[in-house]
Amino acid sequence: xxEVTQTPKHLVMGMTNKKSLKCEQHMGHxxxxxxKQKAKxxxxxxxxYSYEKLSINESVPSRFSPECPNSSLLNLHLHALQPEDSxxxxxxxxxxxxASTDTQYFGPGTRLTVL
Amino acid sequence: xxxxxxxxxxxxxxxxxxxxxxxxxxxxxxxNLFWYVQYPGQHLQLLLKYFSGDPLVKGIKGFEAEFxxxxxxxxxxxxxxxxxxxxxxxxxxxxxxxxxxxFGTGTRLKVLx
Lengths: 115, 113
Hints:
The complex is a heterodimer.
Chain A: E1 4-7, E2 10-13, E3 18-25, E4 31-37, E5 44-50, E6 53-57, E7 64-70, E8 73-79, E9 87-94, E10 105-106, E11 110-114
Parallel strand pairs in A: 2-11
Antiparallel strand pairs in A: 1-3, 3-8, 4-5, 4-9, 5-6, 7-8, 9-10, 9-11
Chain B: E1 3-5, E2 10-14, E3 19-21, E4 24-26, E5 31-38, E6 45-50, E7 56-58, E8 64-68, E9 73-78, E10 87-95, E11 101-103, E12 107-112
Parallel strand pairs in B: 2-12
Antiparallel strand pairs in B: 1-4, 3-9, 5-6, 5-10, 7-8, 8-9, 10-11, 10-12
């Protein structure tokens, strides 16, 4: 199984809502990533978890809160977002972030619209 | 700052034509290099990668890429494209030994049947 799943596929939320994005993989990977991709732009790294611990936060605003409850799951909690946060949010996993030759496996993404 | 450039934003080819997509990066240290593809309605998936050894690497579906260190380039090639190669192609650079992945802006390829 080389699949990374993400739910929901689409999400529309208001600026005062609280919602969560979910990512799951069963490949035994110990590194998991959140990326943000705006239209016609490349994916931009947001967070990296390694062995369920937050390793990297690329200066992401606190209205985005990641969580890694176990080695297979990665959540992204959203609160008080702005319309400019509307984007495709991609999750990826790899065997181990320290082995940077590892392939990242990407999920299909969650398309988020903030009204 | 490190960056990855893909000069061709949109490419239109007829079937059987040859393809070359450019990728240049700016970083003086050791890098690992990737090409990812995103077919319509599908997620990003790896085409090929280079991290050491033979600078000419072969990937899936007949794609290959050549790392030219002196030119900071990692161009993607395919001798004869097919309609099914219609997709968006991203070059990505990983700064060796780090988590840091930087993606290029992507090239949208359309192959006419």
